[in-house]
Amino acid sequence: MIVIRREICGYCGACVSVCPEAALELVDAYLEIDTEKCKNCRICVRVCPLGALGVSDEE
Amino acid sequence: MKSEYDILVIGGGPGGALAAKTAVESGLTACIIEKRPAIGAPVRCAEGIGEDLISEFFDEVDPKWISAKIERAKIIAPDGSSFYLDPAMAGNEVGYVLDRKFFDRDLVWQAVDAGAECYVRARAVDAIVEDGYVKGAVIEYGGERYEVRAKVVIAADGVESKFSRYCGIDTTVPLRELETCAQYLMTNIDIEPGVTVFYVGRDVAPEGYIWIFPKGERSANVGIGISGTQSKDGKRAKDYLDKYVAENFPEGKVIELIIGGVSVCEPLECTVANGLVVVGDAARLSDPITGGGIYNAMYSGKLAAEVAAECIENNDWSRDALMEYDEIWRESRMGKALQRNYQIKEIFVKLDDEQLNAILNSVNNLAMKEFSTLTLIKELMRLNPKVLKDLKGLKKYFE
Q1: What does the H/E/C string look like for chain B?
Q2: Which of B160, B182, B236 is the closest to A17 by Cβ?
Q3: Does A29 touch chain B (CB under 8 A)?
Q4: For B112-157, how does the pLDDT look when each residue is reduced to its tens digit (9 = 90+)?
Q5: Yes or no, beta carbons of B257 and A10 under 8 Å apart
Q6: pTM (2 d.p.)
Q7: pLDDT tens per residue, range B184-199
């Protein structure tokens, strides 16, 4: 499961533009993830320039 | 916020502002919806634009838009050798480093002054699609949801565009064609004022480049873009940037961290639908080589509103009628440059450092009367037939 470290997210939109499921969205000054849509492909984790996206320890 | 306008613009960047301004100047009603709390902030841009390009839209360039005037560009090869592109040679690579906090706000201000409405902290959360036509957007504003209808919606919502997706157009950027970028606004650094600097090479910026865009005598935007496929834990854009800054500007002070994504893919296959026009970064119109997109956003935003106004006057804003926008920009200088530069980018990202050194070192031997991407590639093909054999695929663009 993708997790967002909101205190690091810089509102840049890089993850939103590559998400093939359109599961990510910038809302106000934060990134939101639609867990119903997310297929856990982790493309967003890869492009985040700050490392604000990660994978939960549950996996 | 009214419930109906002629033109609804999603996004208050340069593309959206020019679209709204052009629309109201054509006698239409227009409204800009911007999800961020303020226009122009946070900016996600290195802020460079060619002097001739900005002059296309303004009789006079307001001094407060300009952080620095750029006279020359310096390219640094992976082996550290470098060369300068002088104004006569550098074409679009010289011009201005803008202050987009002022620039973007002034463009929206001009649109509002001309009669447009603008709402910040207003987010399009869905499209209104009826009978196969985009007929407006659902807007979240001040904790409420509003249905705002329009004859034509102009999607100017940037690289992270979602509105077109709500309308059924896939705007996803392929991973390898998203440049993931990080930039510091730095001060107390030794730079050459008036000179933009570009470092290329797999070690410094894999499938991308490092830039230094002066913003004063001792301050600059110092940034990097790398391919999405090259980004990984410990090797992210910011990691490369930190390494570069530590080695080159150890005394420098970081004022601001700016991050973002830039698409270097081909433009959308089609940039219109019934009642919808997509412009700027949302249409993937940023330059595939440089990542520059301010001019392209303004050009396409203005054109979108001109075509939409004509369509509204003819009472037909179907996809077929709006296709005029798509056809005009593709045939324009911008459209042709995008097509050619995409092909060039595809070849350049495959080159290793040795090949890049050979190419860039040979530039010192160039004696070109007129510098442009076109003449540069032609000369490089002539000087490096072996290294650049792949560039032969580009020949069609030079004939």
Answers
A1: CCCEEEEEEECCCHHHHHHHHHHHHCCCCEEEEECCCECCECCCCCCEEEHHHHHCCCCCCCHHHEEEEECEEEEECCCCCEEEECHHHHHHHCEEEECHHHHHHHHHHHHHHHCCEEEECEEEEEEEEECCEEEEEEEEECCEEEEEEEEEEEECCCCCCCHHHHCCCCCCCCHHHEEEEEEEEEECCCCCCCEEEEEECCCCCCCCEEEEEECCCCEEEEEEEEECCCCCCCCCHHHHHHHHHHHHCCCCEEEEEEEEEEECCCCCCCCEECCEEECHHHHCCCCCCCCCCHHHHHHHHHHHHHHHHHHHHCCCCCHHHHHHHHHHHHHCHHHHHHHHHHHHHHHHCCCCHHHHHHHHHHHCCCCCCCCCHHHHHHHHHHHCCCCCHHHHHHHHHHC
A2: B160
A3: yes
A4: 999 999 999 999 999 999 999 999 999 999 999 999 999 999 999 9
A5: yes
A6: 0.92
A7: 999 999 999 999 999 9
Find the CB nearest A18 among B162, B228, B237: B228
Its ipTM equals 0.92
> Which residue is closest to B175 within chain A, CA to CA?
A18
Per-residue pLDDT reduced to its tens digit, B193-238: 999 999 999 999 999 999 999 999 999 999 999 999 999 999 999 9
Is the Cβ pair A49, B237 closer than 8 Å? Answer: yes
